[in-house]
Amino acid sequence: MHALIVVAHPDPKSLSHSVAAHVAEGVICSGDTFEIADLTAEAFDPRFSAADIALHLRQAPAPADVAAEQARIDRADALVLVYPVYWWSMPGLLKGWIDRVFTNGWAYDEMPGDKSIKKLGHLRVHLVAIGGATMRTYARHGYFGAMKTQIDHGIFGYCGASVATSELLLTEERDAASHLDTARAIGQNLFAAASRGKTADAA
Parallel, antiparallel, or unpaired: how do β-strands 124-131 and 162-170 relate? Predict the structure, then answer.
């Protein structure tokens, strides 16, 4: 099986990039394959333009960069997003990637009467957010719950994609080595449920 690991951080030496690399290591250990999409290095343009509006209204085809990202996701059995928490959400680069790539007609179909058809029911999503506060801070202000509502439900739930895991790695509670161990374990277990299902079917 194949994983697309998307990382959104401008510094290649950041913990976010190390976490993405360790998720990839775990995928390799499980005998599966991966691709890393480094949105900064690849200079993905997150700006939602007139061309994106035309696509949303189904008046024009997808811009080439959007079509390429959609093809990447179509090749994947799992999508892993690795990102730092900026202002209690994901960075603008990653949000722009979602804004432009998860389009009407591909991720969902808008229908008359305020209805929509979810089109990504086959996709399993794994979220790995890296924050600088403590879990007590997130819990006290309701930040973690707000992030799950906004991202897990508001984005992926709307498209029908299932969020299999949603991790928050906090640098003020554990050291980097512990977080990298967690990342490797996430990679090793990405397809564990699917593998168990195949074994059961074979039996």
Answer: parallel
| Residue of 7, 186, 180 lying closest to 91 (CA atoms) | 7
Please, what are the domains in the chain?
2-202 (3.40.50.360)
Mean pLDDT by 10 residues, the chain (203 residues): 97 97 97 97 98 96 98 97 95 98 96 87 96 88 88 94 94 91 96 54 42
Residue 54: exposure state from Cβ atoms within 10 A (0-12, 13-18, ≥19): middle
Residue in 12, 14, 13 with CA at minimum distance from that of residue 169: 14
Q: Report how far apart the first and last C-alpha atoms of the chain are (Å, whole number).
A: 20
Picking from 141, 101, 104, the residue whose alpha carbon sits closest to that of residue 119 is 104
The one-character DSSP state at 86 is B
CB atoms within 10 A of CB 142: 11
H-type alpha helices, the chain: 15-29, 50-56, 64-75, 92-101, 135-141, 143-147, 158-159, 176-188, 192-202
